Structures are given as C-alpha cells and as structure tokens.
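User: Good morning. I'm curious how thymidine-5'-diphosphate would be positioned relative to this chain. Could you predict the structure with it bound?
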Amino acid sequence: MGNGPYFIVVEGLDGSGKTTQIEHLRDYFQARGEACYLTAEPTDLPTGKFIRRVLRGQEHVDPRTLAALFAADRVEHLFHATEGILTKLAAGYHVISSRYYFSSLAYQSEYVDPAWVANLNRLAKATLPADLTLFLDLDPAVSMQRITGRGEGSELYETLEKLRQVREDFHRAFAVYGQGERIVVVDAGDAEGRVAERIVAEIQKL
Ligand code: TYD
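Assistant: Good morning! Here's the predicted structure, ligand included:
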C-alpha cells in the first residue's frame, strides 16, 4: 500500500452491505493508525437534505431535476469548505464514501438520458475520480430478501425488476464511464468476513 490518503467509494444495490463493509474498512485503517472520514451521498448538507425529502415523497420534482440535484449535491460533497471530500483528503484523512457518481449513472439513467447524466457529472469525474471503487455485487433477489426479510407479490416483483435493472445499469456505467478508473466488483453474496478480507486485499494493492 502506498501512502494515500485515499478516496474510496463503495457502490452497490440497497441491501448489499455497504454500511457494514465501510465500517470494517474504517476498523482496518484505524488499526493501522490511519484516520479516515466516512461520508455518503446523498449528503447531510442542504442539497442532500432536499434530495431525501424528494425520495420520501415530501417534495415532487421532475426526474431530470432529481438527476441535477444529485449532481449538485456531489459538487457540494467535493468542494464544501469544511465538510468537503477535498478538504478531508487535504487534512490527511482517507475518505470512504457510500455512493458517488456511478450511483447517478445507474439509478438516474432509468429515467433520464444517460449521456446527459454523465455530462452533469463530468466535473466530479475530472476533479476526483475515486482511487478505488468497490462494487458490492449481489443477486437482486438476495438483495430483495435482505431488505424485506421475505415476501412475494406484484409490488415486490416490480421492485425486484427494478433492482435487476439498476444492477445492469451499474455494470454498463462501469464499462462506459469507468475508463481509467480502478473498479473492483466484489461478490457481496459471500460471508461478511470474506467480503471484508477481499476488500482489504484490494486496498493493499493501492
Ligand atoms: P442510500 O442512502 O445510499 O440508500 P441505501 O442505504 O438504502 O442504499 O441512497 C438513497 C437512495 O438514493 C438509493 O435508493 C440510491 C439513490 N441514489 C440515486 O438515485 N442517485 C445517486 O446519485 C445517489 C447518490 C443515490
């Protein structure tokens, strides 16, 4: 492992274990005496709070507006004077983010022209592509089970179909927009400890 600090992004479907694995990674860095800063998108900044309101159905916006809001939140996430990723890296922290622009490319391209979404995110990609993007890849049916515990029915089916689509869109986004980036697909269906080991092995290659 080089010196860093590193900017590491963890992507994955809901229920893929992002939060748990990010905590394992933080423990790994802490055991080495290296400080890290955990962050996520949507952020806790005003832009991210507004997005959460939209996601909860408390505000209604056009899907294109939502795509633009995610991109705006990402600009805040990068450049915010005190909480921003660039500031934290400059202060010597490894930064681990749950989600970054590949989430926009995967989730928003279902409703919005993918090329336009990519354009909205050009500044982020040009400014700070992740040193490592880990995609916690999970069978959407397992992801669904983890989210709901159990269940069936048409609504569930629709949601499962959607998860399948998003997973496909993630893989497409990595292939189309991930050039020059280090993106590693991790089988998130493995036992938690094995997934954590696999992630550490990737960090050690940096
Ligand atoms: P998140 O809080 O990561 O949800 P979870 O922890 O359940 O995975 O993200 C909230 C939702 O926002 C999630 O469904 C994915 C979506 N999202 C987008 O659609 N576009 C984006 O650019 C980002 C960052 C998230």
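The first strand starts at residue 7 and ends at 12. Residues 14, 41-42, 55, 70, 98-99, 103-104, 107-108 surround thymidine-5'-diphosphate (CB under 6 Å).
Let me know if you'd like a different ligand tried.
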